[in-house]
Design goal:
89 residues; 4 strands; alpha+beta
């Protein structure tokens, strides 16, 4: 439908999925409103793991995680008692 009018879209949730959907819809010319119920809008220090397939999708909507974030070079994992759970070589 090449001449279809833009949609008015409500996105519930401002997490990574909701924001990615909102960006994609806005890039297509739709009117988007995002609703988030969390009161932690000023949270700092949160982290996201971006696997390769998600990284590719983010790049398609104009966000390059390598340019706008930090890359973890090495991660160590421990049990709740402090023993090594996974130690990549």
């Amino acid at each position: 439908m090449p001449n279809a009018p833009p949609l008015k879209v409500l996105v519930a949730g401002a997490g990574i999925g909701g924001l990615a959907v909102a960006i994609g819809l806005r890039q297509q010319g739709h009117e988007v409103h995002i609703f988030e119920k969390s009161k932690f809008s000023n949270e700092v220090g949160a982290a996201l793991t971006v696997p390769p397939n998600v990284d590719g999708l983010l790049k398609r909507i104009g966000f390059d995680a390598d340019e706008n974030g930090w890359t973890i070079e090495r991660a160590l994992f421990y049990t709740s008692k402090g023993a090594d759970l996974l130690r990549p070589d």
